[in-house]
Every structure is written in structure tokens, then in C-alpha cells.
Write a structure and sequence with these properties.
mainly alpha, Farnesyl Diphosphate Synthase, two-stranded antiparallel sheet, 2 strands, about 0% strand, globular
Length: about 325
């Protein structure tokens, strides 16, 4: 049994799920229905795991860690509800998205409910530092969403601008989740920063792999439609690298696909991305970020939770879904 599959962590995650179910409760039936639909879809639950693992690695075992882990999952779920509306997505985690099933208006409003419920829960913890970290994180995530919207259909996007979106939109909540474990444990400032660095790098690695899987994976494994990024006109790293490495014809094919959100030539574009080595290069970039995360764990004492955090570095890169 690996550290990530240990009985202790499974028990802790069951407690987090119990908090989620309890805190989702609302007298408004539609909120209950949509909230439970999206939460029950499961998912990797990496962000709440980070809260639990860093708390444990630094010696904090109070019940607040379960509440805080549920809070970050609520924030993440709210962003998914809003993302799927903006992206007009129809499939997530192998099921219809909430917006496809219940409509855009209901999805946006229930996303708002999850955000506000998360902040109610934060206040109940009575820790100003927790409020500070998560208020900052939600603001940065919103900035990342707007940045991504501005970058849509832009084949000339610089790689650094693409990475900035990842750091804002995805890595920021990973960073906050890891940092919060240290905050609960009242760890020294340098340890807290090491934890945050780990989360930021792990989140970046995770998103890089998500982006390459749009050109390497299968819908049945991903739980979303392959080619969604291209349909939405997202200039992700596999496409940017393929354009920089391909010939004039290949470059123009990808440019037009990004500009127009074309998926009718998806098979051809996947072939170009693979032939130019862009998938391998993107995975190598993800591995470099995971290596950075692993290095920051040297600040933590040896423990089963530290081993689980090391394992996450490998799993984040070597996955097919």
C-alpha cells in the first residue's frame, strides 16, 4: 500500500467528505441538487489532500484541518461550475456538466453559493491568516480566468503569458492549500514558503499534463471531450511548442485552428503535435516543475505524509487522466 492510499489518509478524506455533505446543505432544493451532483462526481481531491498531508507532516491533527480541506474543495468546485459555463463544456469527470444538465444560470448561481459558503466556513475557523490566504487566492484565480479569456484565439501568445495563466488560474489554489497546512501548524515563515512553493510547482505540473492530455488522451479516460481546448481556442503549451518546431504549413494549420476554434482537423493537429515532439517537451516541462516541488519537501521532517507528498510529484506527471 502506497502512502497516498494509506488507511489513515482514506479515513481523513472520509471525514472531509462528511464535512462537505454537511456544509452543502441548503433549504433551496436546486442548490442541494446541483451541489451534490457536482461533488458526487468525485475527482482527484488533490487540494484537500494537500491541506491534510501538510498539516500532518508538520504535526497538526486538530479537526480544523477537515473544515479547511472542505473549504478548498468548495472553492475549486465553484471555479469548475463557472469554468464550464464560460467554456461551454458538456462533459466533466465522465458525466454531463452541471450547465449542460441544469442550465448556465443555475450553474453560475450555485457556484456563487459555494464561494460564499466557503467564506462562511473560513470565518467559523476564526483565523485571520486563513482568511488572508484564501481571499488572496480567490482573487488571483479570478484574475487568471480573465487572463485566459483575453488569451483565447491568440496563436501568438508568448509561453510566459501562458504560464502566467496557469500560475494564477490553477497553481494558486494548490499553493494556498499547501500553505494552509503550514498555517494550521503555525510553522516558521521559511517552512510555510517552502510548502507554498511546493503547491505552486505541483499545480503547474498538474495543469501542464492536463493540457498535453487534450492531444494524447482519450475521452473515456479523461472524462472530458478530447479536443475541448482546441475548440475553445486555447493556445496551450503543446500547440505553442508545435508551432515553434513545425514547418510553415504545420504552423499555419495550428494558427488557423486556434484563431477559429476548429476541431474538424483535430486528428491532423494531433499528428503535428506528436511529430514535432511537443507532447514530450510539455511532459518534460511538467516533470521539471514536479522536481522543483520535490526539492522543497527537504524542509519537512521524515514522515508517511512527506512520502505521500513525494509520491504526488510522480503521479502528477506520469498519468493518463
Amino acid at each position: 500500500m502506497t502512502s497516498l492510499d494509506s488507511d489513515r489518509l482514506r479515513t481523513d478524506m472520509d471525514e472531509v467528505d462528511a464535512v462537505i455533505r454537511r456544509r452543502l446543505s441548503s433549504s433551496v432544493a436546486l442548490i442541494d441538487q446541483i451541489g451534490h451532483y457536482i461533488i458526487s462526481a468525485g475527482g482527484k481531491r488533490i487540494r484537500p489532500r494537500l491541506v491534510l498531508l501538510f498539516s500532518d507532516a508538520l504535526g497538526f491533527d486538530g479537526p480544523e484541518r477537515f473544515e479547511l480541506a472542505a473549504i478548498v474543495e468548495f472553492i475549486h468546485t465553484a471555479t469548475l461550475l463557472h469554468d464550464d459555463v464560460v467554456d461551454e463544456s458538456e462533459l466533466r469527470r465522465g458525466r454531463q456538466t452541471a450547465n449542460a444538465l441544469f442550465g448556465n444560470a443555475a450553474s453560475v448561481l450555485v457556484g456563487d453559493f459555494l464561494y460564499s459558503r466557503a467564506f462562511q466556513m473560513m470565518v467559523s475557523l476564526n483565523r485571520m491568516r486563513v482568511l488572508d490566504v484564501l481571499a488572496d487566492a480567490t482573487n488571483v484565480i479570478a484574475e487568471g480566468e480573465v487572463l485566459q479569456l483575453m488569451n483565447m484565439h491568440d496563436p501568438d501568445l508568448a509561453v510566459e503569458d501562458y504560464l502566467r495563466v496557469i500560475r494564477f488560474k490553477t497553481a494558486k489554489l494548490f499553493e494556498a492549500s499547501a500553505r494552509l497546512g503550514a498555517v494550521l501548524a503555525q510553522a516558521p515563515a521559511e517552512v510555510e514558503e517552502a510548502c507554498a512553493d511546493y503547491g505552486r510547482s505541483l499545480g503547474t505540473a498538474f495543469q501542464l499534463v492536463d493540457d498535453l492530455l487534450d492531444y494524447e488522451g482519450a475521452t473515456s479516460e479523461l472524462g472530458k471531450n478530447v479536443g475541448d481546448d482546441l475548440r475553445e481556442g486555447k493556445p496551450t503549451l503543446p500547440l505553442l511548442l508545435a508551432m515553434s518546431r513545425g514547418n510553415d504549413s504545420e504552423r499555419e494549420t495550428i494558427r488557423q485552428a486556434i484563431l477559429n476554434g476548429e476541431v474538424d482537423r483535430l486528428a491532423e493537429i494531433v499528428s503535428i503535435v506528436r511529430a514535432t515532439g511537443a507532447i514530450d517537451a510539455t511532459r518534460a516541462a511538467a516533470r521539471a516543475e514536479a522536481d522543483k516541488a520535490r526539492e522543497r519537501l527537504s524542509m519537512l521532517p521524515s514522515s508517511a505524509s512527506r512520502e505521500a507528498l513525494l509520491e504526488l510529484c510522480f503521479r502528477s506527471v506520469d498519468r493518463s487522466a
